[in-house]
Amino acid sequence: MLGALTALMAGSMAAQGQPTAQNYRTAYEFAHRCFVVTSSYRDDAGARRAFDAVMRLGGLLNLSNRQLNADFNHYTAYESVRLVRDQRYKGQLQTECRTIGLAS
Length: 104
Prior knowledge:
Blueprint: H1 2-10, H2 13-16, H3 21-40, H4 44-60, H5 65-85, H6 87-99
């Protein structure tokens, strides 16, 4: 799943070779958004997969536990408001998260 997430966020891996730190960062940010949307739908299995992806990608980015916690707080606060205000965005994000296996 992590490979699929990274490949999706990186675009064509064949053209780029190995994922870059920016690819991991983009995937990390997307996994955070999936965590928030799956939590809002009470999709426990999806939220767990998204959480695990965030933690693995955070490890690949060499982020400290303090930074990971700060990012969880940031994304939860920001995305929660956005999901309530924009139902279209919420539906689109849930569909994208399902496509890559981070939502049920």
